[in-house]
Design brief:
single chain; 19 helices
C-alpha cells in the first residue's frame, strides 16, 4: 500500500459517496467515464511516486540558491515539472479548445493531491501556474490569453501571484506598488513584493507575475488597487521570449518548510505591465486566484497530514516495544506499538482528521462541477473552513506521526518531521487562520441575511436524517447551537464585539463541518462488510464522541460575547 495517499479511500469518496460517475451525464463531461477518471488517478499516482517523491528530501536539505541575479533549484524539480506538463494535467479541467480535457474539478483535485502529498514544494509551482491561468482566462483579454495563458498550459511559462509587500503583509489596503499609464496602453510598475512563492527560478522560459498595484490618482485602500500582468521577460506576440523586463530578484526567504519552493523578494523597477480588466477592480479579480489557492492550501494540508498518518500507521505496526499492561512476564516478546491504547488514540485521531479533511476538500471541489447559485453560496461559506481547518488539524496528524515514531520521529532519518515543518506554513499563506476566521464570521455566515449559513445547516441536517440517532443527534444539536450563537454574536450589530473571538468561531464551525463530513461517510458506508467500512464507522463514532464535544466550551465563550481580547492592553503583556 502506498504511503503517499490511500487510493482505496479516494475511490470510496469519489465513487461510493460523491458519485462522480453521475457527472458524466452532464454535457461537459459526457466523454468521460469511470475508466477515464481511474486512468487520470493512476497516472497521477505513478508520476507522484516516480518523479515527485524521490527528490522531496533533497528539496528540503538543499534549498534554492541565489547567485545575486537569479534563483536556481534542484534539477529534479524541473524534470518532474516537465513530466507533469507532458501529462496534460495543467489544463485537464479546461475546455477542449484550450487543449484541456474537461476533467471534473473533483477528479482533478484528487489527482493533484497525489503530487502535494509526494512533494509539496515541487507541486507548488504548477498549483500557482494553474491558478494564474484560470484568473486570466476569466478576466484577461484574448491577447493576454494567447500570449501568457497558452504557454503556461503547455508548461513553458510558470505563474505567480504578487500581493504582499514588506510593509503591508496581508493588509492589502496598504499596498504601495504603483503603476503609471503609458501612451501605448501599457503601464510602468514600480515597487517591492514580498513572500512570492515561485517568484524566481530557472524552471521555465519566463514567469508571469500577477501584480496588485495602485494607478496614480487611484483612491486609498483596496478600492484603488488594479491588477497587472508583469512578465519576467518581454514576450512578443508570437510567443517569443525576449529581453528581461524590469523585474529583479532582491533575495530569497529561508523557510521552516516548503524549502524547495523559491520564496522571493521581488523588485519591480518600471517593469512593463498590462492591465487585467478595469482599473480599481484588481482585488476582485485576484480573489479568483486567491480562493482557488486557499482551497489548494487546504488540500495540501490534508495531503501532508495524510502521508504523515500513513507513515505513522506503518511504523506502529512494525515497531516492537513494550508489553500489554496486563502482561506479567518480563520475558514475553514485545508487541507492536499499535497494541498500546495511546498509540491507537493518536492513530484514530489522525485518521479522523485526514479522512475528514479529504472528504471536505473533495466535496468543495465537486460544488464547482455542478454550478448553481446554491452551490456557489455554499462554497463561499466553506472556503475559509477548507483552507484553515486542515491547516490546523491535519498538521496535528503530522504532530501525532512524530510522537508515534518517538525519538526517531524527531530525527531527520524519518520523513515525518519534514511533513510537520512543511505543513506548518499552511496556517499562514493565502491568508492566516485569523484572516479566514474574520472572513467566515464577518462576511460569509451573515451575507445575504444569513442564507449561506442556513444552507450549510440544512445540508448538515440532511446528513443527520440518514445517520444513527446516537451519532446524528449530537451533530444536530451542535448545528442548531452554532446558528443560535451566530445570531447572538451579531444581535448588537457591533463588529468589534461580534468578531472579538472570530478564531474561536472558526474552530467551532470547522469541527461541526468535519462532523458532517463523517456523517456523510458513515451514511455512504452503510452496513457494507469489511475492515475498510468498519474503519469508517468507528472513525465517525470517534469524531462525534471524542472530537465534536470540543465545540461546547467554544460556543459557551462565544455566547458570552467576551471582549477580553479587545480590552487587553499592550502593557499588560509584559
Amino acid at each position: 500500500m502506498s504511503r503517499i495517499l490511500s487510493r482505496r479511500d479516494l475511490d470510496f469518496l469519489l465513487y461510493e459517496w460523491l458519485d462522480v460517475e453521475a457527472l458524466t451525464a452532464r454535457e461537459r463531461y459526457a466523454e468521460h467515464s469511470r475508466e477515464t477518471f481511474d486512468a487520470f488517478l493512476d497516472l497521477s499516482a505513478q508520476i507522484a511516486e516516480r518523479d515527485f517523491a524521490p527528490h522531496n528530501r533533497r528539496n528540503d536539505l538543499e534549498e534554492p540558491t541565489f547567485d545575486g541575479a537569479a534563483a536556481h533549484v534542484n534539477a529534479e524539480v524541473g524534470a518532474a515539472l516537465k513530466v507533469f506538463a507532458e501529462s496534460g494535467l495543467i489544463s485537464a479541467t479546461l475546455d477542449e479548445e484550450l487543449g484541456g480535457m474537461q476533467l471534473p474539478a473533483v477528479v482533478a483535485r484528487a489527482c493533484f493531491m497525489w503530487f502535494q502529498a509526494a512533494n509539496i514544494a515541487t507541486s507548488s509551482y504548477p498549483m500557482l501556474t494553474i491558478g494564474n491561468a484560470h484568473l486570466l482566462l476569466a478576466h484577461g483579454t484574448p491577447e493576454q490569453v494567447e500570449t501568457y495563458v497558452k504557454p503556461m498550459l503547455e508548461g513553458r511559462f510558470t505563474g505567480t501571484m504578487c500581493l504582499s509587500e514588506p510593509q503591508a503583509g496581508s493588509s492589502l489596503s496598504d499596498v504601495l506598488t504603483r503603476a503609471v499609464r503609458q501612451e501605448d496602453g501599457s503601464y510602468l510598475v514600480t515597487g517591492s513584493k514580498m513572500w512570492i512563492s515561485g517568484g524566481d527560478h530557472d524552471l521555465s522560459e519566463t514567469i508571469v507575475h500577477l501584480v496588485l498595484a495602485r494607478v496614480a490618482g487611484a483612491p486609498a485602500g483596496v478600492k484603488g488597487l488594479s491588477l497587472f500582468v508583469v512578465p519576467k521577460h518581454h514576450v512578443a506576440a508570437d510567443g517569443t521570449v525576449g529581453e528581461r523586463n524590469g523585474v529583479h530578484l532582491a533575495g530569497l526567504n529561508h523557510k521552516m518548510g516548503y524549502r524547495g519552493t523559491t520564496n522571493a523578494v521581488l523588485s519591480f523597477d518600471e517593469a512593463t505591465g498590462y492591465l487585467v480588466g478595469e482599473e480599481g477592480k484588481g482585488l476582485a479579480y485576484m480573489f479568483h486566484m486567491m480562493n482557488e489557492a486557499r482551497i489548494g492550501v487546504g488540500s495540501g494540508a490534508v495531503a501532508l497530514g495524510y502521508t504523515g498518518y500513513l507513515h505513522a500507521l506503518d511504523y506502529a505496526r512494525e515497531r516492537l516495544q513494550g508489553r500489554p499492561v496486563a502482561g506479567k512476564d518480563p520475558l514475553a516478546p514485545p508487541v507492536p506499538i499499535i497494541e498500546h491504547p495511546d498509540v491507537r488514540r493518536m492513530l484514530v485521531a489522525s485518521k479522523a482528521y485526514v479522512e475528514g479533511g479529504l472528504a471536505l476538500v473533495l466535496f468543495a471541489a465537486k460544488l464547482l462541477d455542478e454550478p448553481s447559485p446554491e452551490n456557489a453560496l455554499l462554497l463561499d461559506v466553506l472556503t475559509p473552513i477548507v483552507k484553515a481547518w486542515p491547516s490546523q488539524w491535519c498538521r496535528l496528524a503530522d504532530d501525532h506521526a512524530i510522537q508515534i515514531h518517538g525519538g526517531y520521529g524527531y530525527t531527520r532519518e524519518y520523513p515525518v518531521e519534514q511533513f510537520y515543518r512543511d505543513n506548518r506554513l499552511n496556517s499562514i499563506h493565502e491568508g492566516t487562520d485569523g484572516i479566514q476566521a474574520l472572513d467566515l464570521l464577518g462576511r460569509k455566515v451573515i451575507m445575504k441575511d444569513g442564507a449561506g449559513l442556513a444552507l450549510l445547516i440544512s445540508r448538515i441536517k440532511a446528513a443527520v436524517a440518514g445517520a444513527p440517532p446516537e451519532l446524528g443527534e449530537p451533530v444536530l444539536a451542535a448545528a442548531d447551537r452554532l446558528a443560535a450563537t451566530t445570531a447572538k454574536l451579531w444581535a448588537g450589530g457591533d463588529p468589534t464585539v461580534a468578531l472579538a473571538n472570530a478564531t474561536t468561531y472558526l474552530d467551532a464551525a470547522g469541527h461541526l463541518v468535519i462532523a458532517w463530513m463523517w456523517l456523510e461517510q458513515l451514511n455512504a458506508a452503510g452496513d457494507k462488510p469489511g475492515a475498510f467500512y468498519d474503519g469508517k464507522r468507528v472513525t465517525a463514532r470517534y469524531f462525534v464522541t471524542h472530537e465534536l464535544p470540543r465545540i461546547g466550551p467554544l460556543l459557551d465563550l462565544l455566547d458570552s460575547r467576551d471582549t477580553l481580547l479587545v480590552d487587553l492592553q499592550d502593557a499588560w503583556l509584559g
